[in-house]
Amino acid sequence: EVQLVESGGGLVQAGGSLRLSCAASGFSFDNYAIGWFRLAPGKEREGLSCVSSSDSTTYYADSVKGRFTMSSDNTKNTMYLQMNSLKPEDTAVYYCAADPSPYYSGSYYCNYYGMDNWGNGTLVTVSS
Question: Taking 90 as the threshold, does the pLDDT of residue 101 lie above it?
Fold first, then answer.
């Protein structure tokens, strides 16, 4: 059974940094597509960063490019989202996700396909 558990959210001032973690079990990063998404009040879900084992290029949404970095540690089966230069508009619930069909590009998963498996989310609040 695939399980994803996010941690690391919280309250931070604008300009600050946070690192989100996602502990994964039941699958290997080598055979899945993985990504980070967020959902802010009144907005649609946004794919922030996605990567697929069939395409090593990591996709970043324009809204976070240059500020957020996704990484993973296969030895710990954990993925991370380092968030720097945070802005109030980054306030949202952040989700990690994984999909067992890594056939597409990271951009496709983030913008169109979505993913099959989701964590419960962690809240990030950025104060001005």
Answer: no
pLDDT of residue 55: 83
The alpha carbon of residue 85 and the mean position of all alpha carbons in its chain are separated, in whole angstroms, by 17
Q: Report d(CA 81, CA 79) in Å as an integer.
A: 7
pLDDT digits (tens, 9 = 90+) for 55-97: 879 999 999 999 999 999 999 999 999 999 999 999 999 999 9
Q: How far apart are CA 56 and CA 6, in angstroms?
A: 23
Cα–Cα separations (whole angstroms), residue 43 to 11, 38, 115: 20, 10, 19
Instruction: Give the DSSP letter string of the chain.
Output: --EEEEE--EEEETT--EEEEEEEESS-GGGSEEEEEEE-TTS--EEEEEEETTEEEEEE-TTTTTTEEEEEETTTTEEEEEE-S--GGG-EEEEEEEES---S-HHHIIIII--SEE---EEEEEE-
